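HUMAN:
Just now I want nothing more than another pair of eyes on a protein record. I would be glad if you read both lines and explained how they fit together. I have put the entry right below:
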Amino acid sequence: MPPLLELREVSKSIGGLLILNQLSLNLQTGEALGVLGPNGAGKTTMLNLIAGDMAPSSGRIFFDGQDITALPAHKRCHLGIGRIYQIPRPFTGMTVYENVLVGAIFSSRADQRAHQLCRTVLEQTGLIEKRDEVAGNLRLLDRKRLELARALATQPKLILLDEIGGGLTEPEVQEMLAVIRDLRARGTTLIWIEHIVHALASAVDRILAINFGTKLAEAEPQAILASKAFQEIYLGIE
């Protein structure tokens, strides 16, 4: 089967600084890829390039058989790429339901279908009881849930998660992890950047380890965590 997502020697430079260096990867439908690396490794830049928030300096990006290298972000969203940001970006003056409805209308373009989709997504993310709350009043965990719900409402084929566990307590991480595992059980394809290593390793098929924008290794979670190169760079273990 051809990959759902393919990066071919993708590089990104900003002001003469090389952020991502000829990164290549393939992701099949239904797979979950974790991404690990120290701060400044180029992880979020990689997601920005896939989502269309940035353009690569060189290389090509393919999604679902189509070259999307020059495609703007909103058109990539219509094709099926959903993005979760590290810091949630809700419409703070709107209710939870209204926030999710924006994404549902964007994807379905049909009023009744959008409302049905909205309710389904709120149930999946555990927000159905808070649908009438103003988004700006939500605690961090529920803001993260809402960020995920807004992306799911666009009916993505691929979801990009950027440190969705960041700032959460361990019990809250486990709650969010349960939602992600449920998505995986439904066959959702995802790329997940996370510094909470045990959570990431328990939910993905393989891990891509990068440093200074260069691929160190790509393998099953336990193989990456046990590798000498990863432990030296990420954990500081010599």
